[in-house]
Amino acid sequence: MITPYLHFPGTCRAAMTAYRDILGGDLEIMGYNQMPEVPPELAASEAVMHAALTSPHGALMASDFPPGVPGVSQAAVSVTLSTGEAEESRRIFEALGEDGIKVQPFQETFFSPGFGMVKDRFGTHWIVLTTPASAPAVEPA
């Protein structure tokens, strides 16, 4: 199993809570301040060391960048989420797109009854699609 691990600049808790609200499931969050022998500079930190969302749509893991470590969230990767129903795919697309950027509007395509791309308000790029009952033929590589 491959599980995406997302990194955020201090917004991990808000992002993962939003994803849980959109996708359903169980969310576990552990802060840097919960480490055994917490360094003094992290004792009051609200930064997330590890978060895990297990939802009916799959799993996501995430953390904030460690304090003092710069980074760009999900700069060159997209998370793909597919459902069996276009209405459910559209609902998820619209919820992820709230206060985000809809890169490609959700619509029917030749390969899917519903497909769209969005960059959410936390900087995560999503590809949301509906798995068709019969997909077009694809040649093996």
CATH class of the largest domain: Alpha Beta
- First-last Cα distance: 22 Å
The gross shape turns out to be: elongated
In CATH, the topology of the largest domain is named 2,3-Dihydroxybiphenyl 1,2-Dioxygenase, domain 1
The spatial strand order of the largest sheet comes to: 1-4-3-2
Mind summarizing the main beta sheet? 4 strands, mixed
What is the ordering of alpha helices and beta strands?
A: EHEEEEHEEE
Task: Round the mean pLDDT to the nearest integer and report it.
Answer: 91
Give the beta-strand count: 8
Using only CA atoms, what is the Rg? 17 Å
InterPro entries: Glyas_Bleomycin-R_OHBP_Dase, PhnB-like
Pfam families: 3-dmu-9_3-mt
Protein name: PhnB-like domain-containing protein
Organism: Celeribacter indicus
What labels describe this entry?
about 140 residues; alpha/beta; 2,3-Dihydroxybiphenyl 1,2-Dioxygenase, domain 1; Signal recognition particle alu RNA binding heterodimer, srp9/1; four-stranded mixed beta sheet; about 15% helix; about 35% strand; elongated
Characterize the structure shown.
Residues 2-128 form the PhnB-like domain. It comes from Celeribacter indicus. InterPro entries: Glyas_Bleomycin-R_OHBP_Dase (IPR029068), PhnB-like (IPR028973). This is PhnB-like domain-containing protein. With 141 residues, the chain is α/β, with parallel strands linked by helices. It folds into 2 domains: 5-64, 2,3-Dihydroxybiphenyl 1,2-Dioxygenase, domain 1, CATH 3.10.180; 78-130, Signal recognition particle alu RNA binding heterodimer, srp9/1 (2-Layer Sandwich). 17% of the residues lie in helices and 35% in strands. It has 2 helices and 8 strands. The strands form 2 sheets. The chain has a 4-stranded mixed β-sheet, with helices on one face. A 4-stranded mixed β-sheet has the order 5-8-7-6, covered by helices on one side. β7 and β8 (125-130) form a beta hairpin. The chain is elongated. The relative contact order is 0.18.
